[in-house]
Automatic annotation (TrEMBL), chain A:
InterPro entries: CDK, CDK11/PITSLRE_STKc, Kinase-like_dom_sf, Prot_kinase_dom, Ser/Thr_kinase_AS. Belongs to the protein kinase superfamily. CMGC Ser/Thr protein kinase family. CDC2/CDKX subfamily. Its EC number is 2.7.11.22. Residues 1-96, 408-474 are annotated as: Disordered. GO terms for biological process: regulation of mitotic cell cycle. Residues 22-47, 435-444 have a biased composition (Basic and acidic residues). It is an enzyme of class 2 (transferase). The lineage of its organism: Eukaryota, Fungi, Dikarya, Ascomycota, Pezizomycotina. Residues 453-466 have a biased composition (Gly residues). It comes from Penicillium angulare. It comes from the Eukaryota. This is cyclin-dependent kinase.
TrEMBL record, chain B:
This is Cyclin domain protein. One of its GO terms (biological process) is regulation of transcription by RNA polymerase II. InterPro entries: Cyclin-like_sf, Cyclin/Ssn8. PANTHER family: CYCLIN. One of its GO terms (molecular function) is cyclin-dependent protein serine/threonine kinase regulator activity.
Amino acid sequence: MSASKSRWADEDPETEAIIAQQKREKEEKKRAKAEKQRQLDEAKRAQDTAQTDNSAQAPNGDSGPPKKRRRLSNDPDATADDEVPGSEKQAQKKPSTLLRFPVREWGTCRHVDNYERLNHIEEGSYGWVSRAKDINTGEIVALKKLKIENSPDGFPVTGLREIQTLLEARHQNVVYLREVVMGNKMDDVFLVMDFLEHDLKALLDEMREPFLPSEIKTLLLQVVGGLDFLHSQWIMHRDLKTSNLLMNNRGEVKIADFGMARYYGDPPPKMTQLVVTLWYRAPELLLGADKYGTEIDMWSIGCIFGELLTKEPLLQGKNEVDQVSKIFELTGPPNSQIWPGFRSLPNAKSLKIPSNSSSLSGSLPLLPRSRFPYLTNAGLGLISELLALNPASRPTTKQCLAHSYFREDPRPKPKEMFPTFPSKAGMEKRRRHHTPEAPKRGQEAPELDFAGVFGGAPGGDSGEAGAGFTLRLG
Amino acid sequence: MAATGLKQLSNALATPDQLSNSSSSIDGVPSDLETSIRVAGAQLTQTAGVLLGLSQDIIAQAIVIFTRFWLGADGGSLRIYSAKDVSAASLYLTAKLSFQPTSPRSVLNVYTLLLSQDASPLWFVNPRGAPAQPPAPEKYLLTEGGYQSARLTLLRIESVILRTLGFDTHVALPHTIAWTYLQTLGVARPAVARGVVKHLNAALLSPQLLYVTHQPNALAVAAIYLAAREEGVKLVDGNWWEVFDVDREELGFLVVGMRSLEGYLRRERQLWQTQAIPMVLEDVDSEIERRRMMDEGE
């Protein structure tokens, strides 16, 4: 900064170069002097800290405040002189304490060679993930390579959003992005994240019995807690599913894979409907709503809840049409009482709803108890709210966290009491998932014909499933 | 938890090292020239953003990214990258992440106009001043071939910026913070609010790099202080800035910095009366060569 300030003094373009030359020499001297000062200061500070007790040490205890102070001043000389003693004096003199902002910096990307790749974990729609070791610290990390080949618009916005949202979302239930590193080519970009031993999908596949009710509460509370933080930061995840929920051997769950995540606003910006893996996709998306909100994440939470209860994905549609019929089979068909306005959604026009369905009660219907035989009434109430067809009826993360289900017995199990499981990701074993992938960016939103959802002929293989919902009436 | 909550309101700041060493100065660019180019680049970004119809928050973020790019020994050098390319890529990148994305073609069309020696309305590109008559379209035509190569450059520089900044594209702006502070202070006069926005936007061009050396809350407080003063509006008694976590020293420095901008820009305009500020690599090289020759001649 000193350089730019001194520049104002230069009026004459002719002698500028000379002055600049002199300035540079002077500055070099200054810098040398400042360096000497700093060394002196450091010695002094060492002495000071040795002499004074904890209270005096507090203001410069961490490296934050002095660093910031240095920045406030113009003159490197003056700064070096009174930097540390000044801040100490001030802290003692002034009764008002000012909030210090977290001091962050930026720097160029490091090279991926700082990590040694150990084994492959999985391949998702947005990149390859492998387990790796930090060469300097020996720590085990997850290394995710972003897919960015042949992108016509430069660096893909999905990758940028993933990095941006992950950097923003520092929360104990969100996977921690340590840094972004580069490979040799311009296109090689890797995200370095904390390594977690499991993902919930693989874990559920391996387990013989589903989680205990107390364990399910602990898991769900953590996921919703993480999501609550994301929503409070105006981040929508848009691809919540069990394979994107990572878990370590200490019972901690973290939300991962932000390849679909993005910031939203109020009013919501235009967003693509092609989000969320099919089995976890909310009905308003399937019906083609071009305006949607955080409620789509809550629907996914409902699907995850159901999957934790039964160990099987709740709604395994073969395609969009089948997915819609599976949903209605579970929830009952929509009507304008429980979901006002659904008729005006683009894909709802082809929907032929049986006439007798409108006779259902207007209040939020419970899901069939037969699907979740071991769930308490409060639990059934929660999952029915989460899987409400009408997005406006679904609870927010806050409402969900406050739900009586989490306060009734059995209480959530303490994380420390969680059983540990053998890690598939850590054991050089490649995982294979049967969950379909999230939709690819840039795809066209399909024109869907839902005429067959309730057992009609067109629309594909939904005949058997379509009949299912009538069973519920009986 | 407090620290995470504050992240949205705070920025990564330049380190003392990044401020005292720039890649350009290592490559022999005189620091006054570097500052001139950086300030002109910020103005170029602002103008391009307006022509692209982007909202000011996107433009301001782009200018901050543009400014960060040149700092530090690991930053970009004016002997390697053209200021105009970095300006265009910053704007394109920021818009891409916003709710108002724009296309490479729109960006490049606008930059072709703004950098045209004949048609540009910018004083530092076209020292003769904006043409009185609307310029002939041929003067700022981007040919298809030109577009293709410019597009590749745009996307390459975008990657370079991301690499240089470690993919940290987060920029918190003081504008909305200032709004809240004004309401807290009970100032309802529109002229003050206008003055605040004026100072905050002008500070984006500051040769003292105010946006990368100070947190947004401090910028907001300084702008309020200045605007209230200029409008003769009396604010509450006492050290009200401390309520917003700004100490007197920082406030004083920022106020001086913001006020000095007008004089700096006026001097720059005089200094570069007859000659364009080099926004392209080759022009930077020839300017340095010109200065070297003049030095030797004396």
